[in-house]
Amino acid sequence: MVCDVFLLNCKGYYKMSEKKEEKKTKSKTVKNGKAESALKTAEKKTTRKTTVKKTSKPAETEAAMAEVMVDADGKVSKSVMPERKTRTVKTASKTSKIAKEEKPEAEKKVRKTVKAVKVKKAEEVSAEAPVVEEPVVDLGPRRSVAFIGSECYPFVKTGGLADVMYALPKELVKQNCDVKVILPRYKCIPWKYQEKMVYKGEFYMDLFADGRQFYVGIMEYEWDGVVYDFIDNEEFFASGNPYTNMVDDIPKFCYFAKAALSALLYLDWIPDIIHCHDWQAALVPVYLHTLFENTALANSKTIMTVHNLRFQGIYDLGSVRYWSGLPDYVFNKDALKVNYNDANMLKGGLAYANMITTVSSTYAGEIQTEFYGEGLDAHLRYHSGKLSGIVNGIDCDIWNPSTDQRIYTNYDTEDVIEKKKANKRALQEELGLQVDDSKFVIGLISRLTNQKGLDLVNAIVPQMIDGNTQLVVLGTGDANYEDSFRYYEGAYKGEVCSNIMYDEDRAHRIYAASDALLVPSLFEPCGLTQLIAMRYGTLPIVRETGGLKDTVEPYNMYEDSGNGFTFDGYDAGLLLDAINRAKTLYFEYRDSFDKMVVRDMQKDVSWEKSAAQYRDLYLRLKP
Asked: Looking at per-residue confidence, does 139 or 544 come out higher?
């Protein structure tokens, strides 16, 4: 400031003396030409970099920075960051030149230092306020989706449906969707979640054919950008378990389907898509096209996703007609009616839904055959034009060996080979197995039912346990399988451990410690265990069916490719052969085995691609 005032006061004097000093200046300028040229260049750069246009509305400048704009179609783009106001730093080159001639040497050094500091500061200011052209991210039109299902992690979980109901909406939110998940408010939901629910309202709804009224309460919980609305009714959901018996479950889920649609109307939240999951939500499309056809929801499109065709919600036709209150004309052979006098809730949902999906492409084809169709193969072939398969993913934040707090030692692709040995030794010690990290440890994490191919496993356990192999089982289910695995634990002490229970923490540790995971299913719509196993560097041994075939590429010894071991026919000998191939690679070609471990960990098993496919499906239904 002082220097600027001084220069302005001396301006007249310099003009008068300019001619007199012309020759002297010229000689000095020539002498110092290079330095002067560099100085002028720096001054020009300084002026150019730090001079920024002022905005017409200074008060709005900061608020407008990096603003995300959403248009009427849901197209998202980032506005260009407005230029930040910066004081203009000007340098009078002519004045500096004359002052430089007249001032003594010491003062000239000071002046050069001051200019250098100004240039440096100007460059720092310029670096702080760059005008950046942000790339426009086009996420496409925004869509609203209501998920309706009977369970969802972490509130209540009995199987893979709960994982899908949690992870898929979470990923769809990242892909420009508004998602609401509607669930029953079971008494078994942990209190730590119930106490955070917010009351959103209540009303009464007629349900049964006699017009009986039922209370419907709505409690809301928000997490990770997803809104969860819980349908509250003590009469239907006071039981400690989500599923009890068909006599209780059929009226319970008739009520839930109608209450879910009524709640959407009450909340005035009209989604573009209503995504229904399994038979428990299968009456939603039927209600929508009958009792709700003259409401605001009539324009919503429905998708029916089949997670397991074996479970269909079949009961006496007269009882279902009374409990649901649906008109008589839907109870025909093309919709709800099956056999002579039964109603099939899933069949009705498949008939009335706008689209049908299953959880893998192979399974979508399999269920149109008699062997896999569970009595609905002809019905599905008739509706094949609206049937497709989209494979599931897993939540890679939960299933992440580098951050998982439930395993003994964390690891990633860089140190997986050594760290898995540490996990193996810790698991062997915890379960009372012989501690030896050179053993080939096979994990089996499953519901203990005939669908999972456990009769094949039972037939080959004596041949599998050969002194170099250990088996770890975790799960509950049919009594005959539970008893057989208990027997093998007693017969092969230190080599077999049967955990007849479900323990989430122990499941994580088995994934991290095992060398291979068995999934020899008779049929498998998708399967999540093989995806989790690959995420943890545990090689899957699977039968080529459903989602197992879609997600596991068999090992090719000639190309050294693939990410697991497979067999096709449902035969115990073929399963044993696949296990022996895995053991041969482990003991004799360990480098190739270790490469496959790393390759599996690098495989993308997240929900990102699958969610994008669902979103494309939503856009096809609601362009």
From this structure: 544
Mean pLDDT of 422-432: 97
Pick from 381, 384, 169, 393: which is nearest to 271 by CA? 169
pLDDT digits (tens, 9 = 90+) for 51-69: 333 333 333 333 333 333 3
Q: Tell me: the pLDDT tens digits for 354-393?
A: 999 999 999 999 999 999 999 999 999 999 999 999 999 9
Q: Alpha-carbon torsion 505, 507, 511, 515, what sign? A: positive
117 vs 6, 43, 290, CA distance in Å? 19, 12, 78
C-alpha to C-alpha distance for 268 and 514, rounded to whole angstroms: 50
- Region 243-264 average pLDDT: 96
Cβ-based neighbours of 187, under 8 Å, separated by 6 or more: 237, 238, 239, 240
State the DSSP code for 553: P
Closest to 456 in 3D by CA, of 373, 366, 563, 579: 579
Strands (E), 377-463: 387-389, 440-445
Buried b or exposed e, range 293-302, using 16+ CB within 10 angstroms: eeeebeebbb
Residue 430 burial (CB count, 10 A): 13
Strands (E), 58-135: 68-70, 76-78
Tell me the C-alpha distance between 356 and 360, whole Å: 12
Cα-Cα-Cα-Cα torsion 253, 259, 261, 265, nearest 10 degrees, comes to -170
Exposure of 16 by Cβ count < 10 A (0-12 exposed, 13-18 middle, 19+ buried)? Answer: exposed
Per-domain boundaries in the chain: 144-389, 416-606
Amino acid at 339: N
| Residues paired with residue 539 on neighbouring β-strands, in sequence order | 516
The answer to whether residues 358 and 374 touch, using CB atoms and an 8 Å cutoff, is no
Per-residue confidence (pLDDT) for residue 139, from 0 to 100: 65
Alpha-carbon distance of 296 to 388, in angstroms, equals 28
Check if the beta carbon of residue 582 is closer than 8 Å to that of residue 540. no
Exposure b/e, 176-186, CB count within 10 A at least 16 = b: bbbbbbbbbbb
DSSP 5-32: HHHHHTHHHHHHTTTTTHHHHHHHHHHT
Instruction: Give the model's confidence band at 240: pLDDT under 50 very low, under 70 low, under 90 confident, else very high.
Output: confident
| Torsion angle of C-alpha atoms 313, 318, 320, 326, degrees rounded to 10 | 130
- Residues found in the chain: 623
The pLDDT confidence band at residue 619, using thresholds 50, 70 and 90, is: very high
The encoded tokens of residue 299 equal 């324009």
Please enumerate in sequence order all residues whose Cβ is within 8 A of that of 63, keeping only pairs 6 or more positions apart, or say none: none
The model carries a pTM of: 0.76
By the 8 A CB rule, do 271 and 300 touch? yes
The structure tokens listed for 383 are 């509706």
What is the fold, at CATH topology level, of the domain defined by 416-606? Rossmann fold (3.40.50)
Q: Same CATH fold, 416-606 and 144-389? A: yes
Spatial contact of 420 and 387, defined as CB atoms under 8 Å apart? no
Please report, for residues 302, 398, 615, 622, the alpha-carbon distance to residue 608 in angstroms, rounded to integers and kept in the order given: 22, 15, 11, 21
Four-way CATH pick for 144-389: 3.30.70.100, 3.30.565.10, 3.40.50.1220, 3.40.50.2000: 3.40.50.2000
pLDDT at 137: 56
Residues of the chain with pLDDT > 90, as a percent, come to 75
Inter-CA distances, 87 with 2, 29, 589, Å: 17, 31, 69
Q: Which residues contact 591 (CB under 8 A, 6 or more apart)?
A: none
The strand pairing partners of 445, in sequence order, are 474
